[in-house]
Amino acid sequence: MKYVNAAEILPEQLIKEIQTYIDGSVLYVPKASTKKEWEAASGARRFYQERNKEIQKMYKEGYSIEELTEQYGLAYSTIKKIIYG
Does residue 64 register a pLDDT over 80? Predict the structure, then answer.
């Protein structure tokens, strides 16, 4: 991270506006990011969403939480969060 004096690169009006919020302190400005959302590229998010919908459907059809934990290899508390969440 490189320190840059705002007075050297920003317009005076913008500096005055920033000073109304933070005056004389160091301010971090994050990079503009084109970062994708969590697991968007691999498809994991979609996989988990579909799996969770299937678990909710099966529960509504009468499967017990214990049966779902065995079938999906998930903890009892995880199945409960999926069903009631």
Answer: yes
